[in-house]
Amino acid sequence: MSPDQDNAPALPTGRPAAGILTELTALRTADAPTRGGRTFAYVYDAGREGLDELAAEAYAAYATVNGLDPTVFPSVARLENDLVGAAAALLGAPPGSQGTFTSGGTESILLAVKTARDHARSTRGVSDPQLVLPSTAHAAFHKAAAYLGLEPVVVPVDPVTYKANPTAMAAAITPRTALVVASAPSYAHGVIDPVARIAEAAAEHEVLCHVDACIGGWLLPYLRKAGRTVEPFDFSLPGVTSLSVDLHKYGYADKGASVVLYRNAELRRHQYFAHAGWPGYPVVNPTVQGTKSAGLLAQAWAVLQHIGEDGYTTLAARVAEASDHLLEGLRTTPDVHILGEPEAGLVAFTVLTPATPDGTAATPDLSLLLHLADEMRVRGWYLQPQLSFDGLPPNLHLTLTPATVDRVDALLTDLPEALASARSLPPITADPALTDLAATLDPDTLTPEDVAGILAFAGLGEGPDGSGGPGGLPERMAPVLFLLDTLPARLKERLLTEFVGSVFRLRTP
After folding, report:
1. Where are its TM segments located (predicted)?
2. CA gap 319, 404 in Å, rounded
3. Dihedral class, residue 349 (left if φ above 0, else alpha if ψ from -120 to 50, else beta)
4. CA-CA-CA-CA torsion sign (122, 124, 127, 132)
5. How far apart are CA 460 and CA 471, in angstroms?
6. Positions in the chain short of pLDDT 70
């Protein structure tokens, strides 16, 4: 570090609060809206007046409380026990079940996988554990496997229903299996795996079974209360040993609120980390985090208390209403094809090239689909593009919330117009030379200059000569996503890693 850098101040001498808040507000103008029902991914909007203000005030009341030690801050234990107890009651957990409040679905899944790994090690002596999961299981399971040293065993799903194949899942279980996974529903397509058969197969092999109900866990029971048919997916099935449910999804709490549940305390014990072999205070951490603000816990507790049983039933009915209306409209839109039978607030659809008189079947049109996503964004809608994978078609993903009920008609009006505009655009094609080159590249040996050049070609980041905005995105994402769809998975992962790294990177003057 140069002397000038060493003496440079890290921060200004101090700024008035009003100016700081004005700047924060201005920064938000480039973000997708989180309220109003036009962003169909990442956000869950109950559409209830005053809920955001309640959550903010509850957070502020507990922002300085340290959730690390409930013996010093006993209110933390009270709030967490209330939340976990509510989730356990809703999801059919038996007497003796236990759970933990976490920062989100990824942490809940990470803890469930750790629990299964350590349980398999201590009860069956498994030293090289495997994780059996359908190909549609959330990426967080692969992240947990990478962090915790498990081998993922990925089982293809049914190509028509997009649900896990219980026979194939059962066949994949071996003496090394620590955990079998099912989704209720899967994120990508919004369909519920046949949890009963998967959990039964796991139990027959004396293996733990985790249900990823991060999305559906707080919605499906209330859909049932609202009169919808929902197949069992929770602890009412004897083979289900753990389950994750996010409160910041259909519980409508602010981001950073989830619960992981276990059938009994003996299982939950494997989740904990305890250490007394140092000169400081004895450490017992139920979650990955140690010190943590109790603010997120308090706001989630407040939101659940405020909405209540009747409120959640009403909100679930509104989600179902929005889903019914959207699905009906999509089915009457030419060349639009819904994937599977969505059951829990999530919908995925693709766009097909029409069948020809000579018998050529309709096939997904990736170029048209991605142009459509851009055209809808021009019109103020965010539909999440999902690329093709292992024979499963590319699609646009929508998350429905109560706030979208009054927006579905407008979306269905804009969709045909956007589709017509998308058809008028030149089709995107892959450069054959680049595709051939990509097949020969080893992601592990690419130099930073190689990666920068590829990213610049794709329209992401800056080129090796410094051209392009740092971590900048093009106005239209279709060409970028089309290119990514053609690349091998590991190369795609390397490029995306480098791109995100370019967004979060220190820059010298």
Report:
1. none
2. 8
3. beta
4. negative
5. 7
6. 1-8, 355-356, 359-360, 458-473, 507-509
Residue 62, Cβ density class (10 Å: 0-12 exposed, 13-18 middle, ≥19 buried): buried
In this prediction, residue 2 carries a pLDDT of: 54
Work out whether the CA dihedral 29, 30, 34, 35 comes out positive or negative. positive
Q: Of 462, 473, 474, whose CA–CA distance to 507 is shortest?
A: 462
The whole-angstrom separation of Cα 229 and Cα 344 is 11
DSSP 21-55: HHHHHHHGGGSPPSSSS-B-SS------TTHHHHH
CA atoms within 13 A on the CB side of 401: 23
**Predicted confidence (pLDDT) per residue in 223-244, tens digit:** 999 999 999 999 999 999 999 9
Answer yes or no: are the C-beta atoms of 410 and 55 closer than 8 Å. Answer: no
- Number of other residues whose CB lies within 10 A of the CB of residue 506: 4
CA 266 to chain centre: 28
Token match 């915790």: residue? Answer: 148
Dihedral angle at the C-alpha atoms of 370, 375, 379, 385, nearest 10 degrees?
Answer: 0
Pairing of strands 273-275, 208-212: unpaired
Phi and psi (nearest 5°) for 136?
Answer: -95, 0
Q: What is the per-residue DSSP string for 467-480?
A: -S-TT---S--HHH
Owner of token pair 């107890």: 85
Determine phi and psi for 11, rounding to 5 degrees: -140, 160
Q: At what angle do helices 139-148 and 105-124 cross, to 10 degrees?
A: 50
**N-to-C CA span, the chain:** 13
Distance CA 449, CA 452 (A): 5
Alpha-carbon distance 235 to 230, whole Å? 14
Instruction: Say whether 372 sits in a helix, a strand or coil.
Output: helix
DSSP conformation class of 402: G
pTM above 0.85, yes or no: yes
CA distance 170 to 205: 9
Element (H, E) at 436: helix 432-440
The region, left, alpha or beta by phi > 0 then psi within -120 to 50, assigned to residue 186 is beta
3-state class of 183 per DSSP? Answer: strand
b/e sequence 24-53, b meaning 16+ C-beta within 10 Å: eeeeeeeeeeeeebbbbbebbbbbbeebbe
How far apart (Å, rounded) are the C-alpha atoms in residues 51 and 299?
10
Q: Give Rg (Cα) of the chain.
A: 24
Q: Is residue 109 within 8 Å of 138, Cβ to Cβ?
A: yes
Residue with token string 């507790």 = 301
